[in-house]
Specification:
The complex is a heterotrimer of chains A (about 290), B (about 325) and C (about 500). Chain A has about 290 residues and is mainly α. Helix content of chain A is about 65%, strand content about 0%. Classes of the chains: A mainly alpha (about 290), B mainly alpha (about 325), C alpha+beta (about 500).
Chain lengths: ~290, ~325, ~500
Amino acid sequence: MPPEETAPRPEPRKPLSLQLKAGLAITGAIVLLGLLAPWIAPHPWDTISMRTRFLAPNATYWFGTDEYGRDVLSRLLMGARLSLAMGLSATAVSLAIGVPIGLLAGYFRGWVDEVLMRGADVLMAVPPIMLGLLVLAVTPPALWKTALAVGFVYIPQIARLARSVTLSLANEDFIQAAKARAESTSYILFREILPNAWPALIVEASLRVTYAILLGSALSFLGLGAQPPSSDWGLMISEARSFLDRAPWIALAPGLAMCLLVIGINLLGDGARERLDPRLRSRAGKA
Amino acid sequence: MAAYIAKRIVFIALVLVAVSMLVFAITTLLPANVAYLILGPFASPEQVRALELKLGLTDPVWQQYLRWAGHFLSGDLGESTLMNRPIAPLLMEALSRSLVLTSVSFVLIAVIGVGLGVVAALRHGRALDHGVSIATYLGIAVPEFFWAIVVIVIFAAWLGWLPASGYEPLSAGILIWAKHLIAPTITLVFGHLAHVSRLTRSSMIEVMQSPYVTAARAKGLPERVVVLRHALRNALLPTITVLALDFGRLMGGIVVVETIFAYPGLGRLVVFSIQNRDIPTLQAAILVVAAIYAFANLVADLLYAVLNPKIRFGRNAS
Amino acid sequence: MRKLPTLIAAVIGLSLSLAQAETCQAQSILRVALGTTLSQTDPAKTTIGDEYVYVHLVFNGLSRIDPDMTVKPDLAESWTASDDLKTWTFILRQGVKFHHGRVLDADDVVATMKRILDPATGSRARTSLSMVDNVSAVDAQRVKFDLNIPYAGFADIFADRQLRIAPKDKLGELSTHPIGTGPFMFKSWSPGDRLELVKNPDYFEKGLPKLDGVTLRIVPESAARMAALQSGAVDIVWSMPYESVEKFKNHPDVRTDGVSTPTWDGVILNNDRPPFNDVRVRQALALTIDKGAIVELALFGQGDPTFSPIPPSHPYFNKSLKFNPPDIAKAKKLLSDAGFPNGFDVPMQVPQEREQRVRVGVAVRDMARAAGIRINIERVPFASYTANVAGKAQMYVDGYFARPTVDTAIHPFYHSQGSWNKQLWLYKDARVDQLLDDARKTNDEASRKAIFEKFQAIVEETVPGIIAYSAAHVNGVSRKVEGFKSTPMQWLELKSVSLKP
């Protein structure tokens, strides 16, 4: 895929596109709800209550209750923190390791580039979910390990992107000037190139967050992520499978929540990208 | 061109070797060695050791790897340690079934995805565009396992139109074979439409605004011809690349879809062999998957080169 | 070009008629849905319920257990024991043919038994035969077992799954082309998909089986299994998920056929490692548990609380023992006496592929919290249970299928020298050892009942583990299936079953 060109500074005072506004609203709402979950959750999220099992959504339990009598809404809210944490931490890991690798590869070229990029190719040779399964099979499952594994799996993509951005920047004047000034490599990389690369990286990273959330939930679904009684959304859907005919809300709620979150982040990322790169905006002009 | 292809193929072979080493390395870390699993809970340490010696598990890792690699290259894929049957037929069966599933899904993704993208582009900014956007967004925003479950509940349990799972060979009749494919295919297709349709849409929009199309219109050509023959052909360039990459992505999608629909393909084989520590099967299965993935990428790159004269002779465009 | 539509029509017509032809031929094939794929077709090496279904259809043992839990002759038409109960002679039925045509003789039995006794085979049944010193063929029709201890119920053991008889010349191929004597013969196995069996025309029980074949289909997703039953794609769902039982109570096409069994699930506590090596800690945990609630949560009511592998329906069940409601205050006191005034944290493994046991784990975790025992659940694939969890972890959830006899269900698990004990809770109590040894020496029902009642009382007091319940076994059966009855042994009795057209 062609690299994002670094953007010229955005024109000041342009109103936010509808896309961006929607993305911010949705994502912001979910983040907020997740952060406040322990305080705003109407009922305990992991206490078994024999008398309130399988209740359909009603006034007390807005999204109904599950097979243990636990309130689905409260579990959903607590699960939001887990999904967000998974997405963010996994992406943070990918960035922390992938960006320096990409910078090095793009700046030095030559054999450094070859070695690093071939290594990335090997990691990318296996579908992410299989790599994740393999890595997680070596250790007893836990959610934080899943986040690490997901982060690890997506390093190559981030590295590649960082590399292309670096490649396109490496010949810019200000870089040549810095070289002429005999600045150290790390200065050039981290103080000249990186600040200009960030916009493209951040936009890509925001989409990576959605991939991380989806992959993490798939791994949880397959049993390799969050453990019961955690209310990770993937785990919730997995456990709700057996009860789809009598209590579909147990699975529907986290499914829709995940859908909303991913759409929100996508809109945010797309909106940000359109804002930063005017070329992609459609003629119909959704300013 | 030929040199480029040759170079890439050599490269793929190297990558596969590296993958096999990586997988082998990871599997040595797997807790629960398979000798224990075979002999069961009453095995004494001596028996476990004896079986480990017999299976060659006590040799240093690199030696085990080389032994395995030697057999593999000479065509002997070995035996599944768990099921005591040769792997090759197992793998071939699983592979052919997965290929059927992914190929059918792939064709549908291409046709429907491009179609939706074109329609959205031609009506961009309007209701239909948004509609397509939302529908395809739903596809990628919700995890595949969720759609799979929804499909089972609605089409199999409620309506009873489709069988809930499994696989019937062609010998059982074309209709029956097809029926069993529908549910997993719908799930896979729905989950991947968005990439294709969105890219088609944005590149169509760009191309429709290009001087090339304006010129075609100015020539007085009917709109349909302009769209289909001139605009689409150019717009398809990036889409084709994405499509080929999608084939690889489908290989990842089958892990979950095959598990839920009990479709006995490659994805399920991988999960099963990881869970049961069946290392030889796992090695073979992952290599096959990686090979398909790599070739899908190669095809993508080749198509891009063929269709885009600028990089035909191996010069890097980016 | 014009020929194309005709061609297409012809193809469609042909395949439709082929499909029709298939259904005409395959008229009486029973389709069963299983939840887990079979890893093994070698009966000696099978370990899970789904595999046992297949074993029971393809193989016979020297004796068999009918659905009413009585032991009857099977391949052996009679047996005698010496007065000291240490030498047993089995007289084989004449003219029983293996699926490949050869007639069964004593050498086949000896070869099968020797193979099971060989540690290298890795059969779970090896320890069931731990009292056997020697097995030999007296003549073509008689097999002799020399035991090292007197064992009253020796013949009953052979009804068990892994002890089924295989031909001596085909022992090495049991994993690829299994040959047995059973009502159905192995036809093909597509791992992960289906196992096909066909009728054994020479089965030694005349007139049986009535079906032409049985297909075992692997459908791991429970929603898919039940959907298949509802739509008629399968005729029997083996061991249907408990949560679906209620829905099918009054279904027009499907009925639920359930039976209570001695199969049990429970929390296994390692009596050899802290913190559960202290009996007070184990008792404290037991005091937090409400078994009735666990039956509701895990089995949706399809089971009964129990104290040990002896189920409430069994004559030996100790009716004078009570299921006490949780007593948190006492639990906390016990814990603090044991040195845990603030409770403690402990990991607990549950098997990934067994939903009901996961639910037991979640329920126990919630209940134990009240006394300060903070449990952290880890789901582990069944495959690594054997190597990493069983007998090693501090606490984990597990369960065991019905055994042919009370002794085989109890002795290996609770006797300090018992084979399964070491893989489980490493429990040691001299009184229990004495009781179980005494039970083996007598055939008098009244004394055995007294012995086992005392046993249950001690076990309830010393809590090697918390046995939550005896589970019911429920099959989902299409109303087209005639003559089917579920058995507490949890395999499928299909030889007298037929399908309505």
